[in-house]
Specification:
Length: 528
């Protein structure tokens, strides 16, 4: 076994370690060969010191240099595609094709290039100028950003190549990445690409750093450290809230993606008209990637009736017939089993699955549960457990009023969806339910499954608590995702040559700026 080095201050070096760990192949349930260090505080302290020095340089680094780094990194990922895909497959059991090679890696490359375009354009800075009072403001990099990556997207949300990483770097914030322990080898390979791209682009040492694992106490200490500008975290609610508590106590911003059951409303007329087709769509969405998507539809609200009975029967048949996939890790399998048991204990009935196994490696039978709306309304918190994996809960209501009460008792979610009749048969119900669902979700969908999250400037991959820690921000979509890692800098009566370039009278790059109440690309007259 080889102990892998950490990346600190521009150098691959042996960790100051308090122990080690190995990743597992979920399909075979066997440990992989490489050994990774559990870094002690000495490593974190050194990385934060290097990141602080890098932040001072990056603050005045031209946006073209940062964009060049992001584009180089994207090119390196394409160059090393086969090696990256193979490692990610070994560590996650996600299919090489189409999932990793044809979907997730290209998405990650696209995300990096989108961040590069945002860095060049600098629209994320929202330059605002009041010429009468000579007050000017713009967003600016916040400083070192800690990124904690999740287990379910080894590329697209990886702590050293994914969305939070790209957004932070695009603003000029150095990133200290904490690998997810489910796929440390994939993260190491991505860090090699990032390190090489950073050197070629001329970024200062400490701009890109990697640790594989720390103690929980040291993680909490890091997010609250005075040198930390902000934290981006995607993972379990339990661990995320501990980090949030530490960050909040120190007044440090932390952007969390925690848990979401992504409620869906299937209205009666559309079920009657095309229930079989919707059942097929839903099964595909719920079981995609063994259900290990943060936007997986985990709660379906239905109005009782003969069409609903037929729809539920079609779902049961499809869930039983579909192959059972491999889960990402032992921990995911244990958590899914625990969540399903908790739903049953609360009163949910198992319609399909409900037991461990059925697939290769770590697996759990494709699971469909149901509960009456009355029971849900009586104890809503017990039925909103996130069963992360290939499971979903049907809530059967006897009346529109019960649906209203279910919607009113929902926690915050990333997505919410309403399937309705194209010919208008569900319009009255849609008008009743939509305003309630709209308040509970970050992204509202009609007649479309939620599992895809497009890399678009208009995308909101966020939502009310507990889906995220703050409803006003998105983890996907440039340039909005960048603003999480910025501070608003204001300049009052500061001489022109002392201002950031984006706030000076001359606007040689033709940036859009909000000047005296109007958006313009024009220069400001020298007498203003």
């Amino acid at each position: 076994m080889t102990m892998q080095p950490v990346l600190i201050a521009g150098q691959w070096r042996a960790a100051q370690s308090s122990g080690s760990f190995r990743a597992e192949n979920p399909a075979t349930q066997t440990p992989l060969a490489e050994e990774y260090p559990i870094s002690s505080w000495e490593d974190i302290d050194a990385a934060l010191e290097a990141a602080t020095a890098a932040a001072a340089v990056l603050r005045t680094t031209p946006p073209e240099v940062i964009a060049d780094f992001l584009e180089r990194l994207a090119a390196h990922l394409e160059r090393d595609r086969d090696v990256l895909v193979e490692m990610a497959h070994l560590e996650t059991a996600l299919p090489r094709k189409p999932r990793l090679a044809d979907v997730e890696l290209p998405r990650t490359v696209n995300q990096l290039r989108s961040a590069a375009r945002a860095a060049r354009a600098e629209s994320w800075r929202l330059p605002t100028i009041d010429t009468q009072l000579n007050i000017r403001s713009c967003h600016a990099p916040l400083g070192p950003v800690l990124v904690f990556g999740p287990n379910n997207f080894p590329f697209a949300f990886n702590s050293i190549a994914g969305g939070d990483f790209a957004a932070a770097i695009a603003t000029g914030c150095p990133v200290l990445a904490k690998a997810n322990t489910s796929h440390p080898g994939t993260t190491r390979l991505l860090a090699v690409c990032a390190h090489d791209a950073a050197k070629a682009a001329g970024l200062p040492p400490g701009s890109i750093q990697l640790l594989y694992r720390t103690s929980h106490a040291d993680g909490a200490r890091a997010v609250s450290d005075p040198r930390t500008g902000a934290t981006g975290y995607t993972g379990s609610r339990h661990a995320g809230l501990k980090l949030k508590s530490a960050a909040d106590a120190a007044g440090k911003p932390i952007y969390l993606e925690l848990s979401s059951i992504n409620p869906m409303l299937m209205l009666p007329a559309t079920i009657a008209a095309r229930g079989a087709a919707i059942a097929e769509e839903f099964t595909g969405s719920c079981l995609l990637g063994s259900g290990q998507f943060c936007t997986n539809p985990g709660l379906v609200i239905l109005l009782a009736g003969p069409a609903t009975d037929a729809f539920v029967a079609a779902l049961i048949e499809r869930f039983k017939a579909a192959p059972v996939g491999t889960l990402l890790s032992r921990g995911v399998a244990q958590s899914l089993a625990s969540s399903v048991s908790a739903l049953q204990a609360a009163g949910a009935k198992v319609l399909a699955g409900g037991t461990p196994g059925g697939g290769s490696g770590y697996s759990f039978a494709n699971t469909l549960l149901s509960v009456s709306a009355a029971k849900f309304i009586a104890e809503p918190e017990k039925f909103q457990i996130e069963a992360f994996g290939n499971a979903s809960l049907l809530v059967i209501a006897q009346s529109p009023d019960e649906v209203v009460r279910v919607l009113s008792s929902l926690e915050g979610n990333l997505t919410g969806c309403i399937y309705s009749d194209a010919d208008g048969g569900d319009d009255n119900l849609y008008r009743l339910f939509e305003p309630l669902l709209r308040q509970k979700v970050g992204r509202l969908l009609n007649d479309k499954m939620p599992t895809g999250v497009a890399v678009s400037p208009a995308m909101n991959h966020g939502g009310p608590y507990p889906s995220t820690g703050h409803p006003g921000f998105t983890a996907v979509g440039m340039p909005a995702a960048l603003r999480r890692f910025t501070a608003l800098d204001c300049y009052d009566n500061v001489q022109g040559e002392r201002l950031p370039e984006v706030l000076r009278n001359q606007n040689p790059r033709g940036r859009w700026r909000f000047v005296d109440g109007n958006w313009t690309q024009a220069d400001i007259a020298s007498g203003s």
